Amino acid sequence: MKDSEELSILDVGTGNGHLLLAIYDNGYTKCRLIGTDISPVSIELSQAIAKARGISSVIFRQQDLIKEAGNEQYRLVLDKGTFDAISLTDELRDGRRLNKIYAANIHNILSDDGIFLITSCNWTKKELIARFGDFGLEYHSEIKYPTYEFGGQKGQTITSVAFVKGKKNMI
Ligand SMILES: C[S@@+](CC[C@H](N)C(=O)[O-])C[C@H]1O[C@@H](n2cnc3c(N)ncnc32)[C@H](O)[C@@H]1O
Protein backbone atom coordinates (compact mmCIF):
# COMPACT_ATOMS: atom_id res chain seq x y z
CA MET A 1 0.00 0.00 0.00
CA LYS A 2 1.61 3.21 -1.17
CA ASP A 3 1.64 6.35 0.96
CA SER A 4 -0.57 9.02 -0.63
CA GLU A 5 -3.20 11.60 0.30
CA GLU A 6 -5.92 9.21 -0.91
CA LEU A 7 -4.88 6.49 1.52
CA SER A 8 -6.75 6.45 4.84
CA ILE A 9 -5.74 4.16 7.69
CA LEU A 10 -7.92 3.67 10.75
CA ASP A 11 -6.65 2.02 13.93
CA VAL A 12 -9.70 0.93 15.94
CA GLY A 13 -9.09 0.81 19.70
CA THR A 14 -5.78 2.57 19.28
CA GLY A 15 -4.80 2.46 22.98
CA ASN A 16 -1.78 4.76 23.26
CA GLY A 17 -1.60 5.17 19.46
CA HIS A 18 1.75 3.39 19.15
CA LEU A 19 0.79 1.42 16.04
CA LEU A 20 -0.21 4.53 14.08
CA LEU A 21 2.86 6.42 15.24
CA ALA A 22 5.02 3.46 14.10
CA ILE A 23 3.31 3.61 10.68
CA TYR A 24 4.05 7.33 10.57
CA ASP A 25 7.68 6.64 11.55
CA ASN A 26 7.88 4.17 8.67
CA GLY A 27 7.28 6.95 6.18
CA TYR A 28 3.49 7.10 5.95
CA THR A 29 3.32 10.86 6.43
CA LYS A 30 1.08 11.95 3.54
CA CYS A 31 -1.84 9.59 4.14
CA ARG A 32 -4.65 10.09 6.67
CA LEU A 33 -3.83 8.29 9.92
CA ILE A 34 -6.75 8.09 12.35
CA GLY A 35 -6.88 6.36 15.72
CA THR A 36 -10.12 5.89 17.62
CA ASP A 37 -10.81 4.50 21.06
CA ILE A 38 -13.80 4.23 23.35
CA SER A 39 -11.61 5.49 26.19
CA PRO A 40 -11.16 9.28 26.43
CA VAL A 41 -8.06 8.62 28.57
CA SER A 42 -6.47 6.63 25.71
CA ILE A 43 -7.21 9.45 23.30
CA GLU A 44 -5.75 12.09 25.63
CA LEU A 45 -2.63 9.93 26.05
CA SER A 46 -2.22 9.30 22.29
CA GLN A 47 -2.64 13.00 21.58
CA ALA A 48 -0.10 13.91 24.26
CA ILE A 49 2.46 11.40 22.91
CA ALA A 50 1.99 12.63 19.34
CA LYS A 51 2.29 16.26 20.49
CA ALA A 52 5.45 15.53 22.49
CA ARG A 53 6.93 13.98 19.35
CA GLY A 54 5.96 17.00 17.25
CA ILE A 55 3.48 14.99 15.13
CA SER A 56 0.35 16.97 14.36
CA SER A 57 -1.05 15.13 11.35
CA VAL A 58 -2.17 11.94 13.12
CA ILE A 59 -5.77 12.30 14.28
CA PHE A 60 -6.94 10.70 17.52
CA ARG A 61 -10.60 10.82 18.47
CA GLN A 62 -12.88 9.21 20.97
CA GLN A 63 -15.37 6.81 19.37
CA ASP A 64 -17.20 3.65 20.40
CA LEU A 65 -17.21 1.48 17.29
CA ILE A 66 -20.14 -0.54 18.63
CA LYS A 67 -22.36 2.54 19.05
CA GLU A 68 -21.34 4.73 16.14
CA ALA A 69 -19.44 3.43 13.16
CA GLY A 70 -19.76 6.73 11.25
CA ASN A 71 -20.16 7.19 7.50
CA GLU A 72 -16.50 7.39 6.55
CA GLN A 73 -14.80 4.42 4.86
CA TYR A 74 -11.14 3.49 5.10
CA ARG A 75 -8.72 1.66 2.83
CA LEU A 76 -6.93 -0.02 5.72
CA VAL A 77 -8.57 -0.80 9.06
CA LEU A 78 -6.34 -2.12 11.84
CA ASP A 79 -7.33 -3.91 15.00
CA LYS A 80 -4.72 -5.02 17.51
CA GLY A 81 -6.41 -6.47 20.56
CA THR A 82 -9.67 -4.53 20.25
CA PHE A 83 -11.84 -7.39 19.02
CA ASP A 84 -10.26 -9.50 21.78
CA ALA A 85 -11.25 -6.91 24.38
CA ILE A 86 -14.80 -6.56 23.01
CA SER A 87 -15.21 -10.34 22.92
CA LEU A 88 -14.59 -10.59 26.67
CA THR A 89 -18.06 -9.27 27.49
CA ASP A 90 -21.28 -11.29 27.35
CA GLU A 91 -23.24 -8.03 27.05
CA LEU A 92 -25.95 -8.01 24.41
CA ARG A 93 -27.26 -5.04 22.47
CA ASP A 94 -30.57 -5.51 20.68
CA GLY A 95 -30.11 -9.21 21.45
CA ARG A 96 -26.75 -9.39 19.68
CA ARG A 97 -23.27 -10.07 21.06
CA LEU A 98 -21.10 -6.94 20.88
CA ASN A 99 -18.43 -8.72 18.85
CA LYS A 100 -21.02 -9.48 16.15
CA ILE A 101 -22.07 -5.82 15.98
CA TYR A 102 -18.38 -4.96 15.81
CA ALA A 103 -17.78 -7.31 12.85
CA ALA A 104 -20.78 -5.84 10.98
CA ASN A 105 -19.52 -2.29 11.64
CA ILE A 106 -16.01 -3.15 10.43
CA HIS A 107 -17.57 -4.34 7.17
CA ASN A 108 -19.43 -1.03 6.84
CA ILE A 109 -16.42 1.22 7.40
CA LEU A 110 -14.13 -0.70 5.03
CA SER A 111 -13.91 0.65 1.49
CA ASP A 112 -14.71 -1.80 -1.31
CA ASP A 113 -11.00 -2.15 -2.11
CA GLY A 114 -10.04 -2.04 1.57
CA ILE A 115 -8.15 -4.40 3.84
CA PHE A 116 -8.99 -5.21 7.43
CA LEU A 117 -5.99 -6.48 9.38
CA ILE A 118 -6.74 -7.97 12.77
CA THR A 119 -4.23 -9.16 15.35
CA SER A 120 -5.59 -11.38 18.08
CA CYS A 121 -4.18 -13.28 21.02
CA ASN A 122 -7.45 -15.03 21.87
CA TRP A 123 -8.94 -16.12 18.55
CA THR A 124 -7.46 -18.65 16.13
CA LYS A 125 -7.20 -17.99 12.40
CA LYS A 126 -10.06 -20.45 11.80
CA GLU A 127 -12.30 -18.74 14.36
CA LEU A 128 -11.58 -15.27 12.96
CA ILE A 129 -12.34 -16.44 9.42
CA ALA A 130 -15.66 -17.92 10.60
CA ARG A 131 -16.72 -14.86 12.61
CA PHE A 132 -15.79 -12.16 10.09
CA GLY A 133 -16.92 -14.41 7.22
CA ASP A 134 -20.45 -14.21 8.65
CA PHE A 135 -20.26 -10.46 8.09
CA GLY A 136 -19.10 -10.38 4.49
CA LEU A 137 -15.34 -10.34 5.03
CA GLU A 138 -13.22 -12.90 3.19
CA TYR A 139 -9.82 -14.21 4.14
CA HIS A 140 -7.00 -12.56 2.19
CA SER A 141 -3.73 -13.51 3.88
CA GLU A 142 -2.00 -13.84 7.21
CA ILE A 143 1.22 -12.78 8.89
CA LYS A 144 3.41 -15.77 9.65
CA TYR A 145 4.86 -15.82 13.16
CA PRO A 146 7.22 -18.34 14.72
CA THR A 147 5.30 -21.38 15.97
CA TYR A 148 5.87 -23.46 19.10
CA GLU A 149 5.23 -27.16 19.60
CA PHE A 150 3.71 -28.67 22.73
CA GLY A 151 2.34 -32.20 23.22
CA GLY A 152 2.67 -32.92 19.52
CA GLN A 153 0.51 -29.88 18.61
CA LYS A 154 1.86 -26.89 16.72
CA GLY A 155 0.60 -23.43 17.61
CA GLN A 156 1.34 -19.73 17.83
CA THR A 157 0.52 -17.21 20.51
CA ILE A 158 -0.61 -14.45 18.17
CA THR A 159 -2.68 -14.43 14.98
CA SER A 160 -2.80 -11.68 12.36
CA VAL A 161 -5.28 -12.16 9.54
CA ALA A 162 -6.10 -9.81 6.66
CA PHE A 163 -9.62 -9.69 5.20
CA VAL A 164 -11.14 -8.10 2.13
CA LYS A 165 -14.78 -7.43 1.36
CA GLY A 166 -16.42 -10.47 -0.16
CA LYS A 167 -19.18 -10.62 -2.71
CA LYS A 168 -21.49 -12.44 -0.31
CA ASN A 169 -24.17 -10.27 1.36
CA MET A 170 -23.55 -9.62 5.01
CA ILE A 171 -25.98 -10.88 7.68
C1 LIG B 1 -6.17 -4.62 24.32
S1 LIG B 1 -6.31 -2.90 24.09
C2 LIG B 1 -5.33 -2.69 22.60
C3 LIG B 1 -4.83 -1.29 22.44
C4 LIG B 1 -3.93 -1.08 21.19
N1 LIG B 1 -4.60 -1.45 19.97
C5 LIG B 1 -2.62 -1.81 21.34
O1 LIG B 1 -2.31 -2.66 20.51
O2 LIG B 1 -1.88 -1.53 22.29
C6 LIG B 1 -7.99 -2.74 23.46
C7 LIG B 1 -8.41 -1.32 23.19
O3 LIG B 1 -9.73 -1.34 22.62
C8 LIG B 1 -10.44 -0.24 23.13
N2 LIG B 1 -11.88 -0.51 22.95
C9 LIG B 1 -12.65 -1.39 23.63
N3 LIG B 1 -13.92 -1.34 23.20
C10 LIG B 1 -13.96 -0.44 22.20
C11 LIG B 1 -15.00 0.07 21.35
N4 LIG B 1 -16.27 -0.37 21.48
N5 LIG B 1 -14.70 1.02 20.42
C12 LIG B 1 -13.42 1.47 20.32
N6 LIG B 1 -12.40 1.06 21.10
C13 LIG B 1 -12.66 0.10 22.03
C14 LIG B 1 -9.97 -0.16 24.58
O4 LIG B 1 -10.26 1.10 25.19
C15 LIG B 1 -8.49 -0.45 24.44
O5 LIG B 1 -7.73 0.71 24.25
Characterization of the model:
Helices cover 28% and strands 33% of the residues. By secondary structure, the protein is of the alpha/beta class. The protein has helices spanning 18-25, 40-52, 82-87, 98-109, 125-133, and strands at 8-12, 32-37, 59-62, 74-80, 92-93, 96-97, 110-120, 137-143, 148-150, 153-155, 159-165. The strands form three sheets. A seven-stranded mixed sheet has the order 3-2-1-4-7-11-8, with helices on both faces. Strands 5-6 form a two-stranded antiparallel sheet. Strands 9-10 form a two-stranded antiparallel ribbon. The structure holds S-adenosylmethionine. S-adenosylmethionine is lined by residues 12-15, 19, 36-39, 42, 64-66, 80-82, 85-86.
Topology of helices and strands:
Blueprint: E1 8-12, H1 18-25, E2 32-37, H2 40-52, E3 59-62, E4 74-80, H3 82-87, E5 92-93, E6 96-97, H4 98-109, E7 110-120, H5 125-133, E8 137-143, E9 148-150, E10 153-155, E11 159-165
The structure holds S-adenosylmethionine (SAM).
The site of S-adenosylmethionine (SAM) has 18 residues, from β2 and α3.
Short description:
The chain has 5 helices and 11 strands; from the N terminus they run E-H-E-H-E-E-H-E-E-H-E-H-E-E-E-E. With 171 residues, the chain is of the alpha/beta class.
Question: Which features would summarize this protein structure in a list?
Answer:
Methyltranfer_dom; Protein-lysine N-methyltransferase efm4; SAM-dependent_MTases_sf; binds S-adenosylmethionine; transferase; alpha/beta; globular; 11 strands; 171 residues; protein-lysine N-methyltransferase activity; seven-stranded mixed sheet; two-stranded antiparallel ribbon; Rossmann fold
